[in-house]
Amino acid sequence: MTLTAGLAPNLEVACRRWAGRPALTHRGRTLSYGELWRQVEALAAAYADVGVQPGDRLICQLPDRPEHVVALAAAWARGAIHVGADHDLTDAELARLVLDTGARALVLHPSHEDDANGAAARAQPGRSVHIVLPGDGDAPARHLCLAEVLDAPSPSRPPLAPPHGPGETALLFLTSGTTGRPKGVQETLPALWAKLAYFAEAFAPGPADVHLMYLPMSHAFGLKLSLTALLSGGRLVLLDRFSPEEALRLVTEERVSVLPGTPTHFTLLVQALDRARHRVDSLRWAVAAAAALTPPLLEHVYGKLGVEVFFVYGCSEGFLTSTTDRGDIFAGSVGHHVFCGPEGTPPDGRVAVVDAATGTALAADETGEIVFGARQPVRYWGEPEVATDGWYHTGDLGRMDAEGRLFVTGRLKELINRGGLKVAPSEVEATLVRHPAVADGAVVGVPDPVLGEAVCACVVVPEGEVPGLAELRSFMGTSLARHKLPDELCVVEAIPRTQISKVDRPALAELVAEVGPTERLRPR
Fold first, then answer.
1. Does any domain span residue 279?
2. What is the mean pLDDT of the chain?
């Protein structure tokens, strides 16, 4: 299959090609491709009026709603750099991001219902979105209402800026920043489009598809899936904030065919599915990422949702592997279909597992750091380039089997040093959550006077008897070495997770310290 088949080269071409087709649906209102591009031109014209120049950074702190897509495309239409920011950032975090990027403007709206504009936001959602132009020196900040900008008549708009050059930065993907300030990964439009083509090859989206999106468009994965939908002529149904009931309602009423998510999303969807109220026969693909799906969950996803699964492992820096093979996915593999950049697409993509200390390639099934072949250096905004030696070091732990299938087992920085033996929490979690009494689970290292660090299993259990530590160790001992088994058990109400559903280990460690272990095994 040709990578470019059916995929428009940019959003303007898509909007003109499918002008009369529905593009975006949000809260019952649908915007056509033609209407979408009219709004993009209006905002781009407003940016020109206030002096936005090519290369300026424009921050968008909106949830998944049509204005986010408009802001993204209008930034590019001015030759500016789009910076997607989490909608839940605090004022202090947002101010720091403005300072770090030297942003020329922000697009945002109240994030809390009790904000001063909360009532207006609920009554007229579109009119709560504002463009803020930060002041400098004695000049105060200026505020524009986005709805008024989009509604204003503009018979003679200035021409759009020349498109970004092949090597020019068009957007910044913010890393999760779990160890400090998030970094802004610089992305060009050709590199972005190449990743969209990689996705399109995997599940062949087209104009007949309806894509549901609740993954944050401020993150790389959500944005790429959203653009894949629009550049293939499909309809994108946007959900501001995920709830399983609302997602299933939209699947039923909008006849959704492409459903994204993490294991947490799919677990909640399967649990909430009610055949009497929900229709899922329109679904054809589930696009999954963030963590491996357990075999019991996969059985439900394949069986109850009736989909094929496109599983993606990757990072904001743009390196990816994926698979649609059921055998691979059930085995816990992230596949061997590798993307390493526009010039490194399969079959030339390279991925390897190396000794983290020496960089030496490891033999099959040996655990080490996952590295990707980097055709070009990775660039961060205001930071030194990385991967200048031709390899990008992910910081993820994994192994590769004799057939070249990649398995992700954890993070280097999250390793638990249990008496000198290293334990990857993700590897232990994969076994922990298979216990029939565990609804959700995670693992974290806790201080121990003998071992240095002990393995603490944190579990969420439904109403009923809580499994004991001995029972869990016996169950997990058939799959894991003895030193990887939990030394402590902590029962919690919920596992703290990040916005993309990964375990928030610093928060989990704080929770364990507060709650205390339910049961503890002290080794001799």
1. no
2. 87
Closest alpha carbon to 159 in 58, 273, 79: 79
Q: Are residues 221 and 336 both part of a single domain?
A: no
pLDDT at residue number 475: 95
> From its phi and psi, is residue 429 left (phi > 0), alpha (psi between -120 and 50) or beta?
alpha
In a domain, 174, yes or no: yes
Instruction: Say if CB 74 and CB 40 are below 8 A apart.
Output: yes
Q: pLDDT-derived band of residue 119, with 50, 70 and 90 as boundaries?
A: very low
Q: Are 103 and 194 contained in the same domain?
A: yes
Q: At what angle do helices 425-432 and 469-476 cross, to 10 degrees?
A: 100
Task: Indicate whether 232 and 333 sit together in one domain.
Answer: no
Q: Which two tokens stand for residue 75?
A: 């930034």
Lowest mean pLDDT among 73-82, 161-170, 254-263, 500-509: 161-170
Which of 349, 436, 435, 333 has its CA nearest to residue 392? 349
- For 414, which DSSP code? G
CA separation for the pair 121, 191 (Å, rounded): 36
Sorting pLDDT into bands at 50, 70 and 90, what band is 161?
Answer: low
All residues at 6 or more sequence positions from 34 whose CB lies less than 8 Å from its CB, including other chains? 15, 16, 19, 20
Of 241, 271, 295, which residue sits at a domain end?
A: 241
DSSP-H helix ranges across 2-65 = 11-17, 33-49
How far apart are the C-alpha atoms of 9 and 213, rounded to whole Å? 21
226 phi/psi in degrees, rounded to 5: -65, -45
- 482 has pLDDT over 70: yes
- Domain match, 422 and 510 both: yes
Kindly tell me if the per-residue pLDDT of 330 is higher than 60.
yes
* Phi, then psi, of 379 in degrees rounded to 5: -110, 130
Pair 117, 227 in one domain: yes
Is 190 found in the same domain as 145?
Answer: yes
Last residue of a domain, one of 201, 221, 241: 241
User: For 312-340, what is the mean pLDDT?
Assistant: 91
Ranking 23-27, 156-160, 200-204, 401-405 by mean pLDDT, the lowest is: 156-160
Asked if 388 and 426 sit in the same domain, the reply is no
DSSP tally for the chain: helices H, then strands E:
15, 26
Domain count, the chain: 3
Amino acid (1-letter code) at residue 385? E
Contact 425, 505 (CB under 8 A): yes
Asked whether residue 344 is domain-assigned, the answer is yes
Q: Are residues 150 and 26 in the same domain?
A: yes
Does any domain span residue 83?
A: yes
What pLDDT is recorded for position 413?
Answer: 80
Percentage with pLDDT > 90 across the chain: 58
Residue 299's Cα: distance from chain center in Å? Answer: 24
CA pair distance 147, 66, nearest whole angstrom? 12
Structural domain containing residue 84: 11-241
E-assigned strands of 274-413? 285-288, 308-314, 320-323, 337-339, 351-354, 368-373, 391-400, 406-411
Separation between Cα atoms, residue 125 and residue 121, nearest integer Å: 5
